[in-house]
UniProtKB/TrEMBL annotation:
InterPro entries: Auxin_biosynth/cation_transpt, FAD/NAD-bd_sf, Flavin_mOase-like. Belongs to the FMO family. The lineage of its organism: Eukaryota, Viridiplantae, Streptophyta, Embryophyta, Tracheophyta. Transmembrane segments: none annotated. This is Flavin-containing monooxygenase. It comes from Asparagus officinalis (Garden asparagus). It is an enzyme of class 1 (oxidoreductase).
Amino acid sequence: MKKGVVIVGAGPAGLAIAACLNVLSIPNIHLEKEDCYAHLWKKKAYDRLSLHLAKEFCALPHMPHADSTPTYIPKNQFVEYLDEYVVRFNVNPIFNVSVECAMYDECSKSWSVKTRNLATGEENEYKAQFLVVATGENAQGIIPDIPGLKSFDGDVIHSSRYSNSGMEIAYDLTNFGAKTSISIRSPFHVMTKGFIRLGMTLVQYLPLKLVDKILIALNCIYYGNLSRYGILRPEIGPLALKALKGRSAVIDVGTVNKIKSGEIQVVKEPVMVNGNQVTFKDGETHHFDGIVFATGYRSTAKNWLKDDKGWLLNEDGLPREKFPNHWKGKNGLYCVGLSKRGLFGIAKDAEITAQDIAKTLSTERLNG
Ligand SMILES: Cc1cc2nc3c(=O)[nH]c(=O)nc-3n(C[C@H](O)[C@H](O)[C@H](O)COP(=O)(O)OP(=O)(O)OC[C@H]3O[C@@H](n4cnc5c(N)ncnc54)[C@H](O)[C@@H]3O)c2cc1C
Ligand SMILES: *[C@@H]1O[C@H](CO)[C@@H](O)[C@H](O)[C@H]1NC(C)=O
Ligand SMILES: *[C@@H]1O[C@H](CO)[C@@H](O)[C@H](O)[C@H]1NC(C)=O
């Protein structure tokens, strides 16, 4: 199948590119290390979770959400949408298959993708003209290296196990009666879901700077001055920060009110752990029974993608080129869903990638 495409990963990004290729009748082999597609959504996300972005920003290519679908789609309904998507576009990933290495062969002008079946240990090799990286930005949780962390007596977990933001976890913990502190290291924007939707809509018609001003004004009116609670606002506006650094605003699900009422304490950055005692940057020390790290994720694509030479991805496994030039590398290599633009970005990446592959194939056909 040398003419075809190998897709690595069957999260929403992998499903989207597979569907786009199927619509264009371009053969593809789709590999997923877990035993189901959209593993993050099916097996790891909270039941209570609903999408953070409004539904018009959360559709995959060729299948808009129904009018009757709620604006903020509940997790289970999003999973049903994906189930329907997979059936409609005949997406068929091979499961339990982890990609261990992908190398480009100059002679045969094709990618050689080596895999291992995680259930049986069986090894395999696939060859294809095109390779699409769809392994996600959230492949692995990052836990910072705090001196003494190994000595901590309680539970240490990363938020990837809950697929949820730190603000949301803190909110849930207090609702279940836990005395919760939240450690804040650097400034960030807090927004309601409604503000974010408004911002994403307005920015299609107004300059980004103006929309940022509107969002900050709304934020001031709605929340007041939060600096006395330890929540500082970055100097750059929320949309500009997202565009420049890929850093999203934090979505408030009610946590800010709990911080204002004192139900949740804000503490500084932890600098040392000793048994159950955690010491913070301002010198304060408190006792804790558990630590949840909501400290972000990293892409793991660089672990297996060997012959990219930094053309597509940087050392962090994220696109080297800024949006909108992030999706295409050399030698038929592409990435879908690595530009920190959520499902909306995934859909756009998938469409443009499939079109580009189709164009390459038809040019080759014309040239014999
Ligand atoms: C809790 C949560 C809520 C979110 N809410 C929204 C939202 O409301 N709106 C929005 O637009 N975005 C949202 N996002 C962001 C983003 O849309 C999702 O993270 C989405 O799942 C990303 O899809 P993906 O396919 O790129 O990555 P993933 O869903 O992470 O899928 C990648 C797949 O690749 C597989 N894989 C990785 N490495 C290998 C390998 N070596 N070999 C084989 N397979 C491999 C993984 O097993 C995984 O199944 C949310 C994210 C989280 C965590
Ligand atoms: C994947 O592996 C699990 C066990 O790890 C097994 O139960 C399941 O049947 C496997 N699925 C496929 C499609 O091979
Ligand atoms: C917010 O309050 C702090 C003091 O807590 C003050 O220094 C700062 O100037 C205030 N910011 C605004 C915009 O009022």
